[in-house]
From TrEMBL:
Chain segments annotated as coiled-coil in the UniProt record: none
Name by which UniProt lists this protein: BIG2 domain-containing protein
Domain of life of the native organism: Bacteria
InterPro entries assigned: Big_2, Invasin/intimin_cell_adhesion, NUP210-like
Annotated ranges, domain BIG2: 39-119, 124-204, 209-289, 294-374, 379-459, 464-544, 549-629, 634-714, 719-799, 804-884, 889-969, 977-1064
Gene3D superfamilies the record matches: 2.60.40.1080
Length: 1068
């Protein structure tokens, strides 16, 4: 309702309450009294919820109702506020808002109460006031704005949130505090907002004026035709760099150097000019000096010469700059490294003087090139050898003379002659041509020089034989032995003659034989004369053969066992001192104990009585032996009495064994061995006394010489009374063990041993127990271990506690893997005591799954090159292993093409294909190229081969230790002189502007002179140049590009000759 109406209503209500004499209590216990007319059932307040601004007030209406909902007579009402700092209530129920927040107003009468919820809102912002409504800034400047939130009365409101925004952030930006920063020239607005209310300031940004312009570099020097980039930097009066300013460039002398709108200076002609850069009325300058184009390279044709002494060849020289443009009028000098081999004139004519090698150096302005020169002598046409025929006797010599001749037949002096023999076994020849007769026959002697050959035929005759002697002249040999005889042949002068065939013979081949080489072999005892014969002349040697001495006698078998009356045949083997078996010798047999065994003259042994005897075979004082053992009569049967007995534990019985031989006769004095089949049931002494040990049955056996008899023993047990287990309880860590002991007592309380004990566990997952009572802890928990004997039991309680994990270590079968490879990792888990723990769950992870993955079992699989840390985790403890994955090894490298033939200066691009060990193509590997002969052919890092000199080179591509090769052959250039050069088209018109027709391709054809056949020279070097490079430039391949209007002559030069094309450049 309107504020005035509300106040009137409040006044009337107050007067009414006064008239009714109601006293109200509020804000801590004030009250007023209404006349009582009945009991109160409920109280209501209106409104029950209200929202107020700070400082405003509202009166609450209260109604007191009886049980029928009818108003009751007035009562005393108590008013209170839950938070008097937010809202207070008067004794009349007037609520006043003090501070933002929420409070509850309560009205209470006669134990009944009602509550109204009051929300107090802050004073509303009605306007925002800025510290400035207009800002004029220069780029980069920063100004702080402030904003104040105000209420309807214009009073400032503190603590209100203000947000800042800018209209165009490319011109200026504002931060959260209202600081405005100018960025670029222009206009924008900055707005401050608080609780929906805004205020705006206009912002105008202008550029910082240019104060200075500085050029870098301030001075420079370039070669005509080259370019250099100047940089202009604008700065403010404070020295700050100003970017984005417009720069105007100018040259003080455009005929010396021009400058582009970006500051790129192009050298036009030699001289000095000033380049000026201007911006906003300010300028800076740099001095640029243009120098003449220096000589960059010298091209000499041909690059190598092969001449015959006296021959002359003129060299062609071209001087070029760094862009390959021909430079004319430059001074050229020539120098020979060895004028004794070849000289060179001031005009470049090379004259071959004498055989050898040298180089001609061509120099211009500090640059040089060289030409290799090889001078050969006048070639040999033929070689004359004298005498051409000769006859010699073995041992004689003669001198031959070889004369080299040229094509006209004239003798050539000073040439090296190589002598050789067609058959050195007949005659040899020295380096000076002296021939020496060695053996009978005919031979051709060759004289060779520079690929030419002359010859002479030599016949060698044998000298006559005068005597033959055989050595040694007398020899003594054992049967089977050998000896080598030598025959010496001499001529009439007593000189030894070699190479003659010797005929050998024996006078008694049954005693000694002789081979064709003079080797004598002794056959049997006796004497034989060995004769060596050559050309009817003979020599002899006397051979005496002796029998071979006995070396050893062996008897087989070396030992034998016989029963009395038995026989065995022994064999004696006789060998000489060389180990060869000897037959026909007399053997004497003897026995060391004839009462035990006798031996016949043939070696048959007969057993006589029990015992041992040594049998000996003797030949020529040498002997061998064998051992004979004679055994008594065999046992037939063994019987045991009594055959069966029943005993109580601890009882005994004496058994008796009766031994009979194979004939049934009782045998005394034999050793009897007693055994029990179950010693745990019953034992037996060496005399046959049986003692009962435990319940069960056992077979007692008496054995004599492999024959046996038995008796059956039955032992009855004593009943078990109790079974006790010690210790009665134990606590173990997982993996720990304890040995339990079960004590068995019979019904009399006596300890009983040897009974079978059955061990069981009530919880085998917690603890297991072995058949011996050893308990092993398996997992945390409790288990009852029971020992049972014949239905009686005893128990022990086992408590198992888990052992904390102390460490986890990881071991790798391989720490380095190729991509796709695997390695099994093993994690060893140890508890805090260092004991290995099994059965724990291991979690495997990889730090870099893109490099290597790991399975739940620890198997690592390499995925890509790199490193990864594999971690095994158990109960919060971890161990790691480092895995390095290497690229797949290279298997092969192939180079294509595999072979190439190039002319000097030619190129070919080689391609290397790399495959791994599985044959898959591998990319991205570094390929290293190399040439086996860099002087013949060079190869770039990209595989481009450039032919330099004639010859052969192997180009190798290597990757990770593997390589492939290609063969490059550089052919020898034919030395031809350039006769003329033609250029097509001979003229052309192109445009200096527009998207098309700005270039034209010129083609040059080089022809040899008439003396060289006048043919086209396909590999001739062509150098292109332009008479006006600022109007039209030309590339090293003949592409002409229009630059500005005008005319230019394009020249193609090869050697001393050139051809031209007239180029006209017009606007579009």
């Amino acid at each position: 309702m309107p504020r005035a109406l509300h106040d009137v209503h409040h006044l009337l209500r107050a007067l009414l309450v006064t008239a009714m004499c109601v006293t109200v209590v509020a804000c801590g216990g004030e009250s007023s009294t209404k006349p009582a007319s009945g009991s109160i059932s409920s109280i209501t307040l209106s409104p029950q919820t209200l929202t107020l601004g700070v400082g405003s007030s509202v009166a609450l209406d209260v109604a007191l109702l009886d049980a029928e909902g009818q108003p009751t007579s007035p009562r005393t009402i108590f008013w209170s506020s839950s938070d008097v700092t937010i809202a207070r209530v008067s004794a009349s129920g007037l609520v006043t808002a003090l501070a933002p927040g929420a409070a509850q107003i309560s009205a209470t009468a006669e134990g009944k109460s009602a509550v109204a919820n009051v929300a107090v809102a802050p004073t509303a912002v009605t306007s925002v006031q800025l510290s400035s409504v207009e800002l004029r800034l220069t780029t980069g400047q920063r100004v702080q704005l402030s904003a104040s939130a105000r209420d309807a009365s214009g009073a400032a409101l503190s603590g209100r949130v203000v947000t800042w925004t800018v209209g165009d952030a490319s011109i200026a930006v504002v931060d959260s505090t209202g600081a405005v920063t100018a960025l670029a020239p222009g206009g924008t607005t900055v707005t401050a907002t608080s609780e929906g209310r805004t205020a705006t300031a206009a912002v105008f940004v202008t550029s910082v004026p240019v104060a200075t312009v500085a050029l870098t570099p301030s001075s420079t020097s370039i070669v005509e035709g080259q370019t250099t980039q100047l940089r202009a930097e604008t700065r403010s009066s404070s020295g700050a760099v100003l970017s984005g300013r417009t720069i105007t460039w100018a040259s003080s002398n455009a005929s010396v150097a021009s400058v582009s709108s970006s500051g790129l200076v192009t050298g036009v002609s030699t001289g000095t000019t000033i380049i000026t850069a201007s911006s906003e009325g300010r300028s800076g300058s740099a001095s640029v000096t243009i120098t003449a184009r220096p000589v960059n390279a010298i091209v000499v044709s041909p690059s190598q010469l092969s001449l015959i002494a006296g021959q002359m060849v003129a060299l062609t020289v071209q001087v070029t700059d760094a862009q390959g443009n021909l430079l004319s009028g430059r001074p050229v000098t020539y120098r020979s490294e060895s004028v004794g081999v070849a000289s060179v004139s001031t005009g470049g004519t090379v004259t071959a003087v004498a055989p050898g090698t040298t180089s001609i150096t061509v120099t211009s302005e500090g640059r040089s090139a060289s030409v290799s020169v090889v001078v050969s002598a006048v070639p040999i046409a033929s070689i004359r050898v004298s005498p051409s025929l000769a006859t010699l006797t073995v041992g004689e010599d003669t001198a031959l003379i070889a004369t080299p001749l040229d094509a006209s037949g004239a003798a050539l002096a000073g040439r090296a002659i190589a002598w050789s023999s067609g058959s050195p076994s007949v005659a040899t020849v020295s380096t000076t041509g002296v021939v020496t007769a060695v053996g009978v026959g005919s031979v051709i002697i060759l004289a060779q020089a520079e690929g030419r050959t002359g010859s002479a035929t030599i016949t060698v005759n044998a000298p006559p034989i005068a005597s033959v002697t055989v050595a040694p002249s007398t020899v003594s040999v054992d049967v089977g032995g050998t000896v080598d005889l030598a025959a010496t042949v001499r001529d009439a002068t007593g000189a030894t003659v070699f190479g003659r065939a010797v005929l050998w013979s024996s006078s008694a081949p049954s005693v000694a034989t002789v081979s064709s080489t003079g080797r004598v072999t002794a056959v049997s005892a006796g004497v034989s004369t060995i004769t060596g014969t050559v050309d009817g002349k003979s020599g002899t040697a006397q051979i005496t053969v002796s029998p071979t001495p006995i070396g050893t006698v062996t008897v087989a078998p070396t030992s034998s066992t016989l029963a009395i009356g038995g026989t065995v045949d022994f064999v004696a083997t006789v060998r000489d001192v060389n180990g060869v078996v000897v037959t026909g010798r007399t053997i004497t047999w003897t026995s060391s104990a004839t009462a035990v065994a006798t031996v016949s003259s043939t070696g048959r042994v007969t057993a006589a009585s029990a015992g041992t005897s040594t049998i000996t075979a003797t030949v020529d004082g040498k002997s061998g032996t064998a051992q004979i053992t004679v055994t008594p009569t065999p046992v037939g049967t063994v019987t045991v009495a009594p055959t069966s007995s029943s005993l109580a534990i601890g009882g005994t019985v004496d058994l008796v064994a009766t031994v009979r031989d194979v004939n049934g006769a009782v045998v005394a004095g034999r050793s009897i061995t007693w055994t029990s089949s179950a010693t745990a049931v019953a034992t037996v002494s060496s005399t046959g006394r049986v003692t009962a040990a435990s319940a069960g049955t056992s077979t007692i056996t008496a054995t004599v010489d492999g024959k046996s008899g038995t008796a059956q023993i039955t032992v009855t047990p004593t009943p078990v009374g109790t079974v006790t287990v010690a210790p009665t309880s134990s606590s173990l860590a997982i993996g720990g063990t304890v040995d339990l002991v079960a004590t068995v007592r019979d019904v009399n309380g006596a300890v009983v041993a040897g009974r079978s004990i059955t061990w069981t566990s009530s919880a085998t997952t917690v603890a297991t127990v072995s058949s011996t009572g050893r308990v092993t802890a398996a997992s945390a928990g409790t288990s009852t271990i029971t020992a049972t004997v014949d239905g009686r039991s005893g128990t022990a309680q086992i408590t198992v506690t888990p052992t904390p994990v102390g460490t986890v270590t990881v071991a790798a079968t391989s720490s380095t893997l190729a991509i796709g490879g695997t390695a099994d990792l093993v994690a060893t888990v140890r508890d805090v005591n260092g004991v290995v723990v099994t059965g724990r769950t291991i979690t495997w992870t990889s730090s870099a799954t893109a490099v290597a993955t790991v399975s739940s079992t620890g198997r690592v699989t390499a995925a890509s090159a790199g490193t990864s840390t594999i971690t095994a985790t158990v109960d919060g403890r971890s161990g790691t292993a480092q895995i390095t994955v290497t690229p797949t090894p290279i298997g092969t490298v192939t180079v294509a093409p595999a072979s190439s033939t190039l002319d000097v200066g030619g190129t070919v691009d080689l391609v290397a294909t790399v495959r791994d060990v599985n044959g898959a193509v591998v990319t991205g590997r570094t390929i290293t190229w190399s040439s086996s002969a860099v002087a013949v052919a060079a190869v770039s890092s990209a595989g481009r081969v450039t032919a330099l000199l004639p010859g052969t080179a192997t180009v190798t591509a290597s990757v990770d230790g593997k390589s492939g090769t290609a063969q490059v052959v550089v052919s020898t250039p034919v030395v031809q002189t350039v006769g003329r050069v033609t250029v097509s088209p001979s003229s052309a018109t192109i445009k200096s502007t527009g998207p098309s027709n700005r270039t034209v391709q010129l083609d040059a054809v080089v022809y040899a002179d008439s003396a060289s056949g006048g043919s086209v020279l396909t590999n001739a070097l062509v150098v292109w140049s332009s008479s006006a490079p600022l109007i039209a430039s030309v590339s090293p391949t003949g592409v002409v590009t229009a630059l500005s209007e005008g005319t230019a002559t394009i020249t193609a030069t090869s050697g001393p000759k050139g051809g031209t094309s007239a180029i006209t450049v017009v606007r579009r």
